[in-house]
Amino acid sequence: MMQMGDVPIVQVTGAIVVLCSLLWLLLTGNKAPQGVPPGSFGWPLIGESIEFLRWRRKISTFALFKEKRKKYGNIFKTHLFFSPTVVITGADAHKLLQNDGYRSLTSGHSSAMKDLFGQSLILADGDQHKQMRKAIMAGINSKVLKNQIPILEELTIQTLNSWEGNEISASEEFAKFTFYSILGLLISMKPSPQAEHLRDYFSVYAKDGISLPLKIPGTAYNRALQARKKLVDEITKIMDQRRKDNRLHEDVLAHFMHTQDLPENDSRLSDDEIIDNMLFFIFSGFETTSTALSRIIQLLADHPHELKLVQAEQKCIQEEIGNNAPLTWEKLKSMPYTSMVISEALRLSHLGTEISFRTAKTDIAFEGYTIPRGWNIIVDRASTDINPEIFKEPHKFNPSRFKENVPPYVFMPFGGGVRSCPGMEFANLEIMIFIYHLVNNYSWHLTKPYDGLEYTGIVPKPKSGVPIFVERLRQEH
Ligand code: HEM
């Protein structure tokens, strides 16, 4: 997204785009092949990218897709970021992702994504993706995750202490909390000035990275690339330090670096792959979880009956393990009502509107149309989440709906198949631990009503930032 100060760049870029567009129009006629879904390609070359970014910033991608669906039907074509793109939704779309393996889909390849994500999972395909994922999943195994429980508890307690007696923006606070949680998981870094520097660079990388990919000084995209360079330098320094001091670490970076000692044909990660995957982990993991937590805290504040049910469940757990005793893996796995609250909040958070992005490796037959080889595909999960044919009264917060079995391929907030979310367990840990300490020890109320989501970063965030006032509960004797 461009900024006010970029006017000359906008003019020069505009002139270049118009010239290229005319040339492209003359050469191709901006025609789509036969049998493709209905829809519009928009302007030559830039297609509907500007419209997409404008809707994204002002209303939501979700609303844009809804409008397009009204006009063209469930599946439609568009042209985004220099590539023909098809937007699909529904159980069949999820089924395609879940079952395709590496046959006809690869993750969206564009030079912009290569600039931003380097050699991370998102750009790997086939055997390379499989090997890399094997190394990565070994790095976040259940031992590593169990070690995170006391670390997350400490961070949660510190965070909640700092909220006590204050009005805070839950979204801003959760963005910090989830960023520090991931830094703890990846590099054992606690909140500190160094961690705060990383957070500053990361904010620019994540926010400005979602813009027109123009590598020209002064553009948002260029700022994102500069921020990425700083992050790469910082992680490189940490790796160099670890190689010098030989201390034992029990975090994801230690596991990733350990793969370099494995035999040659095993799942090794190069330095570049380690760094790029660490950045991609933060990119994928911190705002998603932060939005989920913000929505949970807001939805529970607005629904006292459901809050009471969560409190009752968490109180039982506290009584079972004893006040001030550490939480255990087993207890965190036995919170059925809280799990339903999390699922319901995820369903209502629209996190999956643009999260699943692919490119067709072959022509794909889908719902009576052809998605041609080389075209990009966006799977709009969020529309399925509020489909009234699947979820009765879809906008109502009703965690108990998850007591019933949800039909297959319908609700998949963490994706499915070869590219399902490797951070799912960790995200659940963060959320469960936070809820446990919050509802057992604090009360809170919204100081401004919830007014929907905005799309300024990687995933939607509550517009108002969810301002709340937090008080400590008096302990009953
Ligand atoms: C509530 C929180 C989260 C949600 C809803 C979520 C959702 C998702 C979804 C839907 C995908 C699949 C996208 C696709 O189909 O291409 C995905 C992939 C991914 N997620 Fe998450 N995620 C969350 C938290 C996390 C966390 C905490 C981490 C890291 C610690 C993480 C790391 C990743 C990575 C690395 C991928 C890419 C996997 C691949 O391409 O093989 N996510 N996530």
Automatic annotation (TrEMBL):
Name of this chain's protein: Uncharacterized protein
Gene source species: Diphasiastrum complanatum (Issler's clubmoss)
